[in-house]
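User: What would this chain look like folded?
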Amino acid sequence: MSEKIVNQKYRHAEREVIVIAGPTASGKTSTAIQLCRKIKGEIISADSMQIYCGMDIGTAKATIEEQKMVPHHLIDICRPGTSFSVAAYQERAVELIRKIQSKGKVPVVCGGTGQYLSALILGLQFTQVPVDLTLRGQLNQRAKMEGLSALWQALYQVDPDAAVKIAQSDQKRIVRALELYIQTGLSKSEHIRRSKEQGPSFSFISYCLTHDRPVLYERINQRVEAMLDQGLADEVKKLIDQKIPIESTCMQAIGYKEVFAFLNGAQSLESCSAAIKQASRRYAKRQLTWFRRMDRLTWFHNTDPGQTAQLIADYREARQIRTGKKG
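Assistant: Here's the prediction, encoded as C-alpha cells.
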C-alpha cells in the first residue's frame, strides 16, 4: 500500500467502517450479525452472487429472520441474468456507508468477493468503459479460431502484469482485458494504477475469518449437504423456468452450474454434491490467496462467531478510548 493511501486512510479516522472478510463457510454472516447487535451496526454485503433475487440457498444468503435482526444492504438488488460490475458495487457501497454513518450507525461490510472488498478498501476510481459487443464477439471468435492460448499471449504482449494474474483458461477475463486495451489504448494494469491515485474516503478496520484447512473443508462439505437438503435443486429449476441463460454469470456460480448438470441428467445427485464440494474448496483456496495479499487484515480463527464478534467489539471500544472518542 502506498504512503499516500495509508495517510488518507488515517486522515479519515472518524469515518470508521468495519470489514469482515473470509472464505466461504468461515462464519462471516453469523459473526457480522452478532457484531452489529453489539455496536449498532448495519451490514453491507460484499458478495457478487447475493445481489441476485431468488438465489438464496446456493449463495448462503442471510435468512429473512437474520435480516430482521440487523439491516442488510446490497442483497437482492438485481434480477438473475443481469450484469453488475465491481465499479457499480463500489459506487453503491460508498453511498450506503455514508447513509449509515449519517444515522449514527456503524457500517459493517461483510463478504468474500475479493474484488469488491479491494475496490472499496483501496478507494479505486473506475473509468467507465461501455461494453462493445461487436468487439467482444470478434475476440471470442478469434479465441475459437486461433485458440485461447493465442489470445492470452496477445494480452501478455500488451499487459504482462494483468496476463500473469489471469488463468490461461479464463476466456471471459482475457477477453475483457483485451477489450479494455483496444477501446482505451491503456492496459488494465494502467487503469488500476490510475484508479488508486485518490485513495479511500473512510477508515477501514478489516478482519479476515478463517479455520484450519481440514476444519474449513469439513464446514464446506456440511454446508453443501445442507443446501441440497434445503432445496437447492428446486431453486435452480426456478431460474431455468425463468429462462435465465445458462451462460449468464449467476448460472455459472458454484452450486448452480453443477445442479443444472444434475437436472439435465448429465450426472447423479451424488456426483453433483461431490462436484459442488470440490469447486467450493477450490474457491476457498482462491479467496484465502486473495486475502493474504490484502494489507492490514487482522486474522481470526473463527471457532465461535459470538466470541469473535465480542473481540472485534472490544477492539473497537479500546480504539475509541485510545483516540479520545469515548468517555
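Confidence is low (pLDDT under 50) at residues 1-13. If you want, I can go into more detail on any region.
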